[in-house]
Design brief:
Blueprint lengths: L1 H15 L10 H4 L5 E4 L11 E4 L7 H16 L3 E2 L6 E17 L16 E17 L5 E10 L1 E2 L2 E2 L1 H12 L4
Parallel strand pairs: 2-3, 2-4
Antiparallel strand pairs: 1-6, 4-5, 5-6, 7-8
InterPro entries: DUF4136 (IPR025411)
Protein name: DUF4136 domain-containing protein
Keywords: Signal
Length: 177
Amino acid sequence: MKNLLLLALVLFVFASCKVTDSITADSSKNSPDQLEYDLVSKPIDLSNKKTFKVITKSDASKDIVQLNKYFEKKLLENGLLEVEEHPELLVQSVIASINYEKEELGYSGGVGLTGNSPYSPPYQVPGKYGKVIFLIQDAKTNEVLWMGTGTGILTANGVLNTKVLKTTLDELIAGLR
């Protein structure tokens, strides 16, 4: 009887021990303010090339048109001229992305409750995660002379994150001469 009572006591003690693992996420670390960029080709010398043309499809999204304008501006700053006929270089931008939804806590509207309160109703924030590709090709041979990519979260509050994309393009174009 003593053994049975002792066994019951030991089982009760083990059963009452509760181990909780709490996992917290810091959203500021999970939402980078910069794309991971990569220069796929070696830095090239464009000093012998003077003209370029931006390739944009007629049905291109507004995001692609916007990226091409940034790309065009950077090339103009590097001393190249944009022409419509007989360019030496062809340039273009491509976006490959997927849509995602991130759940965030909302403001409950109650007195004394904050947006991070456990009583706040969650809401979905849409976004795009993907890769931006910038290309420079030789107009005569169609050989890719330079390619840079940026990977990460492409949108902020449902629109293209222009600050992040400009920073990424600045870093990538720094290799051009």
